[in-house]
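Worked example (supplementary).
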Amino acid sequence: MRKIANTPEPPYYAVIFTADRTDVSAGYEEMARAMVELVQEHPGFLGVERAEAGTGILVSYWDSLESIRSWQMNDRHQVARQRGVSEWYNACRTRICKVEREYGFHRD
Amino acid sequence: MRKIANTPEPPYYAVIFTADRTDVSAGYEEMARAMVELVQEHPGFLGVERAEAGTGILVSYWDSLESIRSWQMNDRHQVARQRGVSEWYNACRTRICKVEREYGFHRD
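After joint prediction of all chains, the assembly is encoded as:
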């Protein structure tokens, strides 16, 4: 997984998932890694970025709203979300966005 | 700073800033905290979420593209970005997005 996703020219879509974590860590990192692997096989997936320190932020990038909906319906993804709500998250928020513009730099 | 921003009903705007950090830590955390404080005073600011672990993700939320542009032009913000490019980041990417939908949960 690249630290910074290599996304195409906008417009495309982003799902910003922010979670306030509980102290429960059993199974969490394993599930998070499994989801990051699984999502990369999903049609329409463009990239993912993840950072975590008490607050966890995972941003995934998509070609369309249809691809996002289809990923939200994925069985294994739904199981992971359910465990998140019951064990790993005090609170979480998902925001569906259209990326309109992007820019950046990288060191040579 | 709340872990999960308390944003209004969409639509509104998000700026996703993702950075691949260098090993240089001098001055970084201090500047990051100063920027998180400063941004909260900026007109049109709605909220911010931050997580970091090698990769740093900072998402700020805004009422309009005009407010985002005005924050990007802020003198102290520009100084911080310049230090980021020269010292703290191997690479970084900024994505400007329109938030179209959001949902979530929090434990009672």
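Two points are worth noting when inspecting this output. The mean pLDDT of chain A is 95. Residues 12-99 of chain A form a domain with the Alpha-Beta Plaits fold (CATH 3.30.70.100).
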